[in-house]
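sorry for the late reply, my laptop died twice this morning and i had to redo everyting from scratch. anyway the thing you sent over, i finally got around to it. pasting the sequence first so we're on the same page, its 253 residues, then the predicted structure underneath. double check i copied it right bc i was rushing
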Amino acid sequence: MLRGALLLGLLVLCMSTTAGPALAFNPWTFPPLPPPEQYGNILINRTSTANGLQPVGFSHLSHRLLYTCRVCHLELGFEMFVNTTEITEGKNLQGHYCGACHNGKIAFGHTREHCQKCHSGSTAFGEAAFAKLGRLPRTAFGNRIDWVYAMYEKLIHPQQSLIDKDYKPLDFNKKLSLESRWSGTPPAIFPHEPHNLWLDCSNCHPDIFNIQKKTTEHFEMNYIVQRKFCGVCHLKVAFPLDDCRRCHPGMKK
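ok and here's the structure:
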């Protein structure tokens, strides 16, 4: 028994020093992935239950067909973490938050006959909308849609701004090569351009990432899986961490 355990330990050590730990096993626990049509769905329940209402089921998929992330998470003031934005019915009726679009003109309004469209109490929805997106380029994880490539190919045309009809994303395509601290793992390559298509610089800097390279402390997978840094988006909305080679293209497996 002891000899067997020693041999197993030597085997793991050899795998970690030759093939590289990233190719041998995954020491992190990623959130389980829902069905593709439900990926990105969130449940907003800051005050709904307390007020006798069902929580709001929100679909990132259906909204990102119409708007980029910066519209909601910059112009409309939605925080990046669910249930931290002080959304109220009063503010919505004044044209804030959801009410900026759900006013009966751009999208269905805040009237009683529409209550259950949002206050569904569930994230298990989206199959019908997802079925209509078969023309979009595919990936292997998350909702299995390559949203960046779809935008590059002009297959989708999400609105970039609600307040500036002439807004254009920043023309900045600097790529960062981020060395891994884990032996055997190739560097992560971060391209600014595809992020600029969807986000504003201020969505990431300076609150999530320091603006200066290599000055962000604790920028490690142990923290990313806790929904910090890249994990703010790349756990449950943008393509998930399971898609290792999207960030670490040097991986062979």
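Residues 1-24 have pLDDT under 50 and may be disordered.
thats about all i looked at so far, will dig more tmrw
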